[in-house]
Amino acid sequence: MAKKSKEIWKTYKNVFDDFTLRTVFKLMSQQVIDGLESPIEIGKEANIFTAITPDKKKVIVKIYRLEGCNFNKMYDYIKQDARYTNLKKQRREIIFSWVQREYRNLMKAREAGVSVPTPMVYRNNVLVMEYIGDEIIAQQLKNSIPKNIEGFLKKLVTELKKLYNGAGLVHADLSEFNILNYKETPVLIDFSQSTMKKSNNSDELLKRDIKNIIRFFKKIGLKTDKKDILNRITL
User: Fold this and answer.
1) Where are the domains of the chain?
2) pLDDT in tens, 71-113
3) Is 88 exposed, middle or buried (0-12, 13-18, 19+ CB in 10 A)?
């Protein structure tokens, strides 16, 4: 592990607890990542950084806070997922399962051909995944309005159809915050809340996703029909 890289991570000790730092250093010693570049977002529940791999590629490191996370809310989501019905309501177990769930959801989406970041590895409360962007990271849809709004929506619905019918998943937290606009193409991110479509609450969550889509595209000048989008995704 490069001493300089380790020292850079240590500068964020006010953000990370010792357990998280040890997890990050473990990933560095295993040559998953080599060094931290810069923070993208420092949040109450998760911190997101760009990092560099040993072969000099840029990646994303997403780190869930062990103390700041609302693990009760996480549990309310994850207990509906058929894959986690035996999960105990213990903070760290829930958070670690939450990270594993995001990895698994991203993997299932990727295998179904959905436009998402490729997950690389997860350990405890840390997830490493593909960087989307060039010299500048791809922007959230809320900050990067497409030039062809109608065309972008059509592409987005196609991705959601692949997610629903191909991967068997509902995003469950879809909004302009969780869609990237990369070269006029939507990339879906933040899959920790995503659930299997056979889960009891999947229909409700899909309708909420669609409601958020309709609200945003209306805001930027394109009216859409809820029933039409629902049919295009599910049929």
Assistant:
1) 3-130, 139-234
2) 889 998 888 888 888 899 999 999 999 999 999 999 999 999 9
3) exposed
Q: How far apart are CA 61 and CA 28, in angstroms?
A: 12
CA 20 to chain centre: 19
Q: List residues bridging with 170 in a β-sheet.
A: 195
Which CATH architecture is the domain 3-130 placed in?
2-Layer Sandwich (3.30)
CATH 1.10.510.10 for domain 139-234, yes or no, is yes
Active site residues: 173, 190
- Distance separating alpha carbons of residues 235 and 231, to the nearest angstrom: 5
Q: What is the pTM of this model?
A: 0.92
